[in-house]
Description:
The protein is an alpha+beta fold. It is 33% helix and 18% strand. The chain has 2 helices and 2 strands; from the N terminus they run H-H-E-E. It has a two-stranded antiparallel ribbon. A hairpin with a 6-residue loop joins strand 1 and strand 2. The N and C termini lie far apart (44 Å).
Amino acid sequence: MGLGEPPSDLTPRSRDLASDLEVLDGLLSTLTHVLDIREVFDRVSEIVQPVLPHDIMGVVEINEAADRIKLLAGAAKGANPVKDW
């Protein structure tokens, strides 16, 4: 059993849960002590990819009239996202 791999004697559901908990642990470690999500959003995207497959991910703000959105942080596969907001 390698580091970060669930024990092989677990049931498939237990292995899935253990794997999800590993992802959550990595996500929490990445977000700890970060004041601006934009600093680590690419890493967040990488970490959650196994449990939430995606080509693009973002955090948006919707105005009160619900007719406009503002991208606060984003990540995309193979893209060079704009870093200056």
